[in-house]
Amino acid sequence: MRSGSRNALQQGARGDRTGNVSKLVKAIGRNKHAYLFLVPTFLFLGTFSYYPPISAMIHAFFRWDGVGSGVFVGLGNFRELVTEDEFFIRSCLNVCILLTFNVLKTITMPFLVAELIYWLWRERARYAYRVIFILPMVTPGIVVTLLWKFIYDTHIGPLNRFLTGVGLENLAMPWLASTKIALYSLAAVGFPWAGGIGVLIYLAGLHNIPADIFDAARVDGAGWLRRLVRIDFPLVLSQVRVLTVMTVLGTIQGFETVMIMTKGGPGFSTLVPGLYMYRQAFQYGRFGYATAIGLLMFLGILFFTYANLKLVRSRE
Amino acid sequence: MPRGKCRVPAVVALLLAFAFLCGCGPGTTDTSVSAPAGSEDTDKVRVDLTIWSGQYEQAFKKVGRDYEKLHPEVRVVVETVPSNFYQAWQQTQLVGGTAPAIMQSHWGNLWGKSGLIICWDDYIDNPNPYTGTVWKDLFYTENVDYLRDEAGRAFMLPYDLVFTGIYYNKTIFERLGIDRIPRTWSEWFRDMDTSRRAGIIPLAWPGAEGPQLEWVCRMLFDCLCRDKFATVNQRRAHPEETYPPLTDPTHGYGEVLDGEEAAIAFSNGIFDPLNNPEFAEMAHQLKRLVPYLQKGFNGADLREVSTLFLTQRAVMMLDGTWNVIPLQEDIAELQPEDQFEVGMFRVPTLTTDDSPLVDAPFRDVGGPGGLKFIVTKKMAPERVKWAVDFVQYLTSTDVADYVFSHTKLIGPSNLKNVDTGSLFAIFKDAPIVKMDGYVPDEQALDELKAYLQPFFEDDLTIDELLERWHTIYSRGTERNIVKWEWDMDLATLEE
User: What kind of fold does domain B162-366+432-484 have according to CATH?
Assistant: First the structure.
């Protein structure tokens, strides 16, 4: 292309851009009151939703005690975390074990309960069971956690009392006080893991499956197990994806249950990164180090979420 | 819509948004003197006092009203803030310049280093206007000195004291034929054996909580390593004071080993868990307790321990003086046939019968651990003046006497002329552990606890424990050197 025509094109493009900008400015000017009303929303969004994580990302590279601006240490916090900090590494392993259990719990039990409810004959019964399984959701999480702490109590807990009462006292043990079993006791909290939002989401997914697919399966002679495995489950995979993402987020970020029930102990057998981050920040005053943990947690969540999406999408 | 009418809501919305965001902006120094706008006392100087020890609230409010009568230009506001997250709350308030004038605090030396609070040394040598005597003479000054930072500055003013000891069920002791309180570790174990044989848990232990383990560790370390202190404690923050020497087992107060001294001792191998048999001995003596503790002690919290004690399934528990009154109240609420008499004794001492490494008897863990006053610096000078004046008022003998006699006490008073009666008499003149040298900081303490617990369960050998203890100490020392900018030279003091 000759240079003259290229210049003309470039000028034209620049002119177009200038024209677009001036059009945009004029449009904003015409609707300035509407934009003024939007300004507080964006200010709040920026202040409360974007500034804190961005600030955290920056402070992850600082030695910072929460006062003043801190000292830049480059990747020092991350190096210490992954090479020297046995507690952080153990907390990551613990959260991986919890994650495995939680994902399995999320995928299996609520799905089975949703199936049972969905295939009930009477609409009235279906409604009643839906309510029965959803009602516990209104109980605050903290109450449920404290209840389970009581259930696990070594001396007065109903679990050990039951085991002793039926002659299985050798199975009665300090559920939350032994380094060997405390993490698995935490993973079992909420048994039989059947209620909650998962059931609702799976039910919605089952309702979306066209009835003629079930009819075709019936005509083809598929039994309930084959239908469950070959039709129902594959067709609610998008619900599985949503629930798995929610579980991954909740497990990696959450530490309330651990904090209330075991405080990360005994030893570091139930320590999770969220609790460790909290301690570093608010107990030891190492805010820079804590934000580095937060950043690694964010990357972990990103990885698991991406892996899950990829996995489920390929199945779909 | 006419343009003029349209502008009005937009401007109002903008102003509201601006006003709201101003509240979210970075903090500035609170230079205002007066009470909050909207109150009736906008022309008065606001002196606000925030505590987490809620038992003082009513008494402080009463004396606050008396103070307002004395000084009509001042308005006193007393508030209790929940102890959870108090440190983080206090830090944000101080940094943001919105902190109350007077606060209860354990972290005064940290805030003082950052210039956020006043130093009491500028005031305590002057007379207290409410007594006419030199202010510091009203206190047991050794407790004020105990809290001084490495540079010897006093940022916290202790109002009361707390001690730790063994609570015991007198009724069960009598039933078991234990007719005298154990004074030594051997006697204590003998009594615990008696209790265990009777099917009663000898000692209820909250393994999920930090402090109890820390207290015993401090006592053991102090007892086993006393011979090292003369070597380690090279710097005297207050050379003008003449305290008894550290090696004197009977003295109550003395020089405090500071962090830099401990760090140097570790670097020189004096406080190194791998080099010193005292650390292994500490672990060994702690593990001797395990057979006498309740099943699942590693995961037990204070609630569980209190339940075991109150239901008489455990005969002893280790706790602080702050539990004396709550425990008596709990026992009073039991059915008459379930009630029992409770007593308290000082933790029995380890002797050379138990370990050849013992240097000196146990000293108690306690001291100024309850209410300590700090005063915010980032506020108008007039408010600082009145805040100091109000603390002077609170510590004057008559006022303090009223406060301590109208409060559920957590321990004895730190004011010389205020008598807290026989309740805490066993701790009168009790020698106090001053040496923290077995771990360098709070994080290291938590980490040590996390390794001790599997050690108690036989999941970790003593060699593995000592190796990890060394690593913990090393990392903690490095953290401290960076945090406090120590040059590891005792001739200099870092600011």
Answer: D-Maltodextrin-Binding Protein; domain 2 (3.40.190)
**Residues A47, A48, A50: CA angle, nearest 5 degrees:** 75
**With an 8 Å Cβ cutoff, are A179 and B442 in contact?**
no
**Sign of the dihedral through C-alpha B456, B459, B463, B465:** negative
Q: Which of B86, B92, B298, B313 to mutate to test the interface with A (most CBs of A within 10 A)?
A: B298
Q: What are residue B342's DSSP bridge partners?
A: B169
Nearest alpha-carbon partner for B411 in B468, B370, B452, B358: B370
Q: Which DSSP symbol is given to A83?
A: I
Residue limits of CATH 3.40.190.10 in chain B: 43-161+368-407, 162-366+432-484
In sequence order, what are the residues at sequence separation of 6 or more whose Cβ sits closer than 8 angstroms to the Cβ of residue B150? Answer: B237, B258, B259, B260, B484, B493, B494
Domain limits, chain A: 1-30, 81-315
A36 with B85: Cβ contact below 8 A: no
Distance (Å) from the C-alpha of residue A244 to the closest C-alpha of chain B? Answer: 31
Report, in angstroms and rounded to the nearest whole number, the Rg of chain B calculated over CA atoms.
26
Q: pLDDT tens digits, residue range B219-274?
A: 999 899 888 887 887 765 444 444 444 434 334 444 567 788 889 999 999 999 99
C-alpha distances out from residue B108 to B112, B249, B376, Å:
6, 29, 10
Residues A242-280: tens digit of each pLDDT: 899 999 999 998 899 999 999 998 999 999 999 999 999
Q: How far apart are CA B492 and CA A89, in angstroms?
A: 38
Q: Mark yes or no for CB contact B10/A47 under 8 Å.
A: no
Chain A residues with CB under 8 Å of B483 CB are 65
Interface test with A, best of B312, B446, B471, B483 (most A CBs within 10 A): B446
Sign of CA dihedral B26, B28, B30, B31: negative
Strands (DSSP E) along chain A, which ranges? Answer: 62-63, 71-72
Asked if A262's CB is within 8 angstroms of B296's CB, the reply is no
DSSP assigned state of A254:
-
Contact B296 A67 (CB under 8 A): no
CA distance B6 to chain A (A): 8
Give SS3 for B361.
coil
Within 10 Å of residue A134's Cβ, how many Cβ atoms? Answer: 15
Minimum-distance CB partner of B17 among A39, A155, A285: A39
List CB contacts (< 8 A) between B6 and chain A. 33
The CA distance from A67 to the nearest CA of chain B, in Å, is 7
Q: What's the rounded Cα separation, in Å, for the pair B461 and B280?
A: 11
Task: Please tell me if residue B22 touches chain A, with a CB cutoff of 8 Å.
Answer: no
Tell whether A39 lies on the interface with B, counting CB pairs under 8 A.
Answer: yes
- Contact B490/A at CB under 8 A: no
Q: What is the mean pLDDT of chain A?
A: 88
B425's CB contacts (< 8 A; 6+ apart) are none
Q: What is the pLDDT of residues B440-480, one digit of tens each?
A: 988 999 999 999 999 999 999 999 999 999 999 999 999 98
What is the nearest CA distance from A22 to chain B, expressed in angstroms? 23
Is the minimum CB–CB distance between B451 and chain A shorter than 8 Å?
yes
Which residues 168-187 of chain A have a CB within 8 Å of chain B?
173-174, 176-180, 182
**Domain A81-315: CATH class, spelled out:** mainly alpha
Rounded Cα distance, A89 and A81, in Å: 8
Comparing CA positions, the residue from A80, A133, A126, A124 lying closest to residue A293 is A80
Q: Which CATH superfamily groups domain B43-161+368-407? A: Periplasmic binding protein-like II (3.40.190.10)
